[in-house]
Amino acid sequence: MNKSDNEKREVLLRVENLCQYFRTGSTELKAVDGVSFDIYKGEVFGLVGESGCGKTTTGRSIIKLYKITSGDIYYRNTRIAAGTRSLEEQMRALRKEGRRTASALQKEGDAEAAKEERRKTAARLKELRHAIKRAKYDDEHCNHVYAAGKEAEVRAAYEEKLASCPEAKRDALRKEYKEQLRIASRERITNKIQMIFQDPIASLNPRMTVRDTIAEGLIIKGIRDKKYIDEQVYKMLDLVGLVPEHAGRYPHEFSGGQRQRIGIARAIIMNPELIIADEPISALDVSIQAQVINLLNDLREKFGLTVLFIAHDLSVVKYFSDRIAVMYFGKIVELADSDELFAHPMHPYTRSLLSAIPLPDPAYEKKRRRITYNPLLAHDYSKQQPTLREVSEGHFVLCNDEEFESYRRALEDE
Amino acid sequence: MTNKKLEVKNLRISFRTASGKVQAVRDISFDLYEGETLAIVGESGSGKSVTTRAIMGISALNAIVENGEIFYDGRDLLKYTEEDFQELRGDKIAMIFQDPMSSLNPIVKVGKQLTEAMLLKNRTRRRSSRRDFYRMLKALRTAVRDSEGENAAYAKMVQSFIRAERIGTKCESRYRLARQNAEEAHERLKELLVTYAKETESTIRTRCARIRRYASRCGDEFLPVFRSDRFLRLLEMLRPNGLRTERDLNELLQVLEEGLSLPVPDFYAIGYYRAFSGDRGNGGNIEALNERARAFCAEFDRAFTKDTEVGIAHAHAVSLQKKSEALTPLREGAAALGGEWNKETVVPLVKKLSALVQDCIDPTEVRKESVERTFGPCILSYCARYFAGIRKNEKEQARFDRQTQKRDALAARGKQPDWKVTPPSLTDTGALKQSMLAAFDALIALYEAQTAAGAPYDAAAETNGTIAHLKDLASRTAVRVNRSAAKRRAIRLLNEVGIPDAEKRYGQYPFELSGGQRQRIVIAIALSADPDILICDEPTTALDVTIQAQILELINKVKRERNLSVIFITHDLGVVANIADRIAVMYAGKIVEYGTSEEIFYSPAHPYTWALLSSVPDLESSERLEAIPGTPPNMIYPPKGDAFAERNRYALEIDFKRQPPMFRITDTHYAATWLLHPMAPKVEIPASVTERIRRMRKEADSE
Question: Which end of chain A is more exposed for a tag (fewer CB within 10 A), N or C?
């Protein structure tokens, strides 16, 4: 898939300058620091990197398990999460700057210009204040706004129907209308994004049966029809390769692979469009890993799911993903189509990561030389800070001008 | 031939549970050679961890060892007491555990957990080396006395030898500490210089201060460079307020390298020289000092070696004599044990033979023959287990019959009882008998080979080996680890396993670290005590690729340096290909295939191995993965035939009826599948596997 294809395709999720900082004592830990990427509909987007580089945090921020520090996350062009830190910093800087220039002008005796300057600053501050307010509103109320929209849709549809409905059937229709309205009022845009968690043991409540676990989402969604819920649960169990008898059991009665299947069933029962799979197979046995990957592949074909696949096993990511982003210490250092990334790795960290993949081939393993990566030695960012730039079509690398040139040259030489 | 480090023979372990006996390990045997890595591959629940836990003596409380032996250093580990194991664990056999959460103590700081083993084990190791040293000298003296009567001159020589070694080890001890400090300083300085231009002034200052602390402690009489004025002047420059340039630091690095490349003194010779020449031999060139000392003690060495050789040859001759005499009773014993066993006759016979063989052992030999040394304890235990088993089997059978009867009676009355009858846990007495006879066969074959006329024996080489061993033991007592040295080593280990900020982590508690870091701490602890055998139970499963590669490199490096033997348990075939020399594939408590790493990857023979290989994607694969259908069998009721038959696409009818034996493919490659039987139909290896092998071969050839 190349760039022109991408442009035609619908962007399902857009992450812009996502920052997620955590307070640790007096200092701040920058778990994710300015990450941007798009996920297109129907693709599998792989996110790789060493442990502690912020992959999981990114995934968790997207489904709003954390309150993000700054940046925006758009789902189908609706802002579902927004942070205000960068805006606040801008405001602070602006205020300082404005005050300084104004007082300088004042000293020079140009009172009129100073006044003008103050007025300009105030206007821009107001704009920023407004942006912050909007961000806060979107962050908190995106789901309510979405639900209100849904309610309006239902209302419009039923008002019409009610008007044209004969008197005898009107009561039944009214009842249905009320029910639909209630369900619509509980619609959440973030329900379209579901997550499969890393540890199948820790992520299932040991005191809930499999039925309760899987049906919980539906119940929260406002569905009260027991029969329908049971039907759905059995359907999901069947989909993930379990049998209806399993519904009454507790998580501890299952093996690791089966537990992960329960986690998957719980996610897909909500009929999501985007699944965030956070290392779904790293806690599993080899033979089970293959089963789970095959299952995810089948589901993807069946429902046209989009997947954000977070993992550290590169051979699996390569096998499963269309595009891959490599993260290092909270930043994306390289992003490309998976074949392109493996064929032409450019960033030194990606090279070192690829050189570390173990393969089931003793002769290759005997020869394999690992490249070590030391950011202090590999880059010289004293003159210019790096940014994410497009080196070739659809292939982004974190670099500065100098490195950018060298990457391009290396690519042309080939 | 390389030495066998560990031998597991016919091991069978079950677990007693409420619903019956779970047969976790069923009759597995393997050897571990010196300096090799054996990988055990298989799904969870196939008995990999159970086997290794038995080796460490940390089986669960409900585990029953039904049969088998684990030989290490001439003794059966299954008969060790807890006190014996405490000497062994960590020091001789160390283990990296799977679960870092539960294998670290949450209320003890990381640093303490790391250094604890080093400090404790250093003490016991020095003690045991010293003990072995004197024991060996005593054996030599006895041998010499036996050969030529009371020899006062030899006794005096032994005393001189001891005195020389004492003085030598004292010097060595000091030398090693100084050298360690120098190495540490060198390492840190090198690191600093790599990024010198980019560091800030304050980091450089603190790092220089630390380097200075190490460098100021590396002066020793055998490292004269570190006492020179030039070195001291450079050290002054490292002071916080000292004036230093990059050139000075480079010069210091040069001096440190110079010092570290000085020749190593011959401590034994120098010890002898100092003890008996009346000269301290201070200062000057170390090469010259070595020469002088060696020349001085050459005469003594010759005399000592000559007399020792007489003793060793004599001891060997006596042992051979005893062995050839023992052959007849052994053969008779084997014949007698081939028939029915009667408690009154068998027990005294076994006791007598065990004592007889114990007596045949040559006390002066350095390389211990495990067949001979384990024979005695082994046959005693077989015998005891056999008779205990007969008694217990009767009881178990009676209980089973009684309960079945009760159940049948209920069923006959039309009730369906909701309980099951636990199957009887019987001891396989036939297998015990077989093992006993096999032990006899092995010993008789060994003795016949040793006592045959013209069996190679080189007394001079043996003597040299013995004396080298003595010197090695003495030098081992010189390795002294104190608190600060232990801390330094711990921090270096932390750096080696890839933990950033090692110095800060040293003082933290386990809960302050991430899962991957905790796993790395566990690895560092296992490596801290310099073990002989390292057991790795899925050490890198929780780690990401870069750290995994780093840790595998570390394990490989340590293995090469110390000639370590490693047992590596994992289910990641990529890791196996990297690290293993030989591979054993386990399924349902049995080894189904084993061979060298090339054989398993390039010409796998068992359907289970095929299934494992085709269920992992590599960088080229794009077709659908072939997952293994179903789950492993319930080991309370192990299947009658091949345990893998149920999930096997290639299963033959016989697979459901009889267990396949191990078929030999090459001398190193064995597999337990009926497909290898000459009468079996020809079966093609799955396409995805052949395809990959073809690709790998091509790549290997093209380069």
Answer: C
